[in-house]
Design a protein that fits this description.
It is a single chain. The protein has about 290 residues and is of the alpha+beta class. The chain has one domain. The chain is built from eight helices and 13 strands. Strands 2-3-4-5-6-11-10-9-8-7 form a ten-stranded antiparallel β-sheet, with helices on one face. Helix 2 packs antiparallel against helix 6. The longest helix is centred in the middle third of the chain and has 17 residues.
Length: about 290
């Protein structure tokens, strides 16, 4: 297989890698339980059942990743996050990596609600990475929230203020946070986060969406609409290693094998020789 290309700068045009293993790894490393059904949907649950993740390639809609957190394992979710089936896997991995750390820190971390009095816990902390990467407010002003767009207009974030139906936030795109990426005509990915999602978890998504580090992709596997807009750079394989002067010296000074050495059959050291035969010549045949 040829070496992949890399998407530089506009990583929100990368599309999914269509494998979930990297995003599951941070949680499985903590000993979370993994199960699957007969359709190959995967379910990962924290030891105390307070956080549950579903990887649902055979789900009812395009919501491939669904993560919910609970103050009580038998109550309604405190918050929910969803990534669709076109979302770059690296964005999901960034989220689950921070989620694993938040779970390790305890309920005060993974159930922390946004706090306008604390800059680190305010909604602005999640928006700041995008602003620092040149994302701008949308031309129209929203009375009910804030909308930002990437410099090329092919990715955006919408934060909705006011009251939202809790059930709608978990099952539709009408969530507190809505991020998307992709050209106007073509496949688009999205990620949603409901009210009360900890700011550090939303920040993990927004930071990865505008991360300047390139993402590897094979051009032939990308949708044409994405290839036409993404900045692809061929990945040049590293050149073969050049021997150092010390390597050359070691090679030239290595002692050559003695020419007088002769091979000895392996069996001759362990197998006795057969007895000698008669020395007299056989008589004439009749």
């Amino acid at each position: 297989m040829p070496d992949p290309d890399s998407i530089d700068g506009d990583v929100y045009l990368a599309d999914s890698t269509f494998t979930g293993d990297p995003a599951l790894e941070p949680l499985l490393a903590l000993g979370w339980d993994l199960r699957h059904d007969e359709l190959a949907n995967v379910f990962v649950t924290a030891p105390d059942h307070k956080i549950r993740l579903g990887y649902l390639p055979e789900g009812d809609d395009d919501g491939l990743w669904r993560i919910n957190a609970y103050a009580d394992a038998f109550a309604q979710p405190n918050w929910g996050v969803c990534f669709n089936d076109r979302c770059p896997t690296e964005f999901v991995t960034a989220f689950t990596t921070v989620l694993a750390q938040a779970y390790t820190d305890g309920p005060d971390a993974y159930l922390a609600r946004p706090d306008t009095e604390d800059l680190d816990q305010s909604e602005f902390a999640a928006v700041a990475p995008l602003i620092n990467r040149g994302w701008k407010l949308a031309p129209h002003h929203l009375r009910w929230g804030v909308e930002l767009k990437a410099p090329d207009g092919m990715a955006g974030l919408k934060y909705t203020a006011g009251r939202i139906e809790p059930e709608a936030e978990l099952t539709t795109l009408e969530a507190r946070w809505h991020l998307w990426g992709g050209p106007p005509k073509g496949p688009r990915w999205y990620a949603t986060a409901s009210s009360h999602t900890p700011v550090r978890l939303v920040t993990a998504i927004t930071t990865s969406v505008c991360d300047p580090a390139p993402l590897p992709r094979w051009e032939d596997t990308m949708a044409i609409s994405l290839r036409n807009h993404a900045h692809l750079t061929p990945v040049t394989p590293p050149p073969p290693l050049v021997p150092t002067p010390l390597d050359v010296q070691r090679t030239t000074t290595r002692r050559a094998p003695s020419l007088g050495t002769r091979s000895v059959a392996r069996w001759s050291t362990t197998t006795p020789l057969p007895p000698a035969g008669p020395t007299t010549r056989p008589g004439p045949h009749r």
